[in-house]
Predict the structure.
Amino acid sequence: MKYDRRLILDTILYVLRTGCPWRLLPHDLAPWDAAFRWFRAWTADGTWRQVHEALRDRVRIADGRDAQPTAAVLDSQSAKSAEGGEAIGYDAGKRVRGRKRHLLVDTNGLLLHRVVHSASVQDRAGAKLVLAGVHDQFPQLQLVWVDGGYVNAVDTGLIGWAEHHEQQQIEVVPRNADVKGFQVLPRRWVVERTIGWLTRCRRLARDYERKTAHAEAMIDVAMIRLMAARLAGEDIEPEGPIETEAARRLAEDLNDKK
């Protein structure tokens, strides 16, 4: 190889963390075309996904959990698109033109599956894209928490679909209508914290990718970076109300176990 793999990886992580355009990379890193070529190749052959799954299992085991999760949390994030490309749509609810990131995470906030699709796709339809085939990969997964946007008085079809096709129970975590503004909701704060982790990487603050496969790969790389740091023993200070509340609750759980 002309360029060391560590240099290639450092270059990709630089783009992810700083949001730097590929063509404006510093000269002490790998040339942009070489780094992008490897990023594209590792996306196409599934390398990012394989590394992500291996690290996730190691983190769960290090936390004293089984590698196979039994419960998960589902949510989506609409991101404005800074480029053209495939699957660009308009989310009328969030008033965002771009794409929607659908995330399924375990109870620790680690990513189980992700799908990037047009922002015009409704949450109930997007949930089926994420949950389809998940039972084959996680046969012990039985419970998925969602918000009221997925199951409501208008459409409860997701509950029957998930039970019939994926053998999973969908449970809604309702929002308290009497509370105005931001509120931390049980279970749902886990996936909100994961979204906070992702948006620390400026490349994910908006959607800069022209292909949805590359957008999904950037999410994988962000989680790989986070899990590698966790396995290396690096502490990450919480930022914002969601991460601060999550850190407080986790500290309380650890004290209760002691």
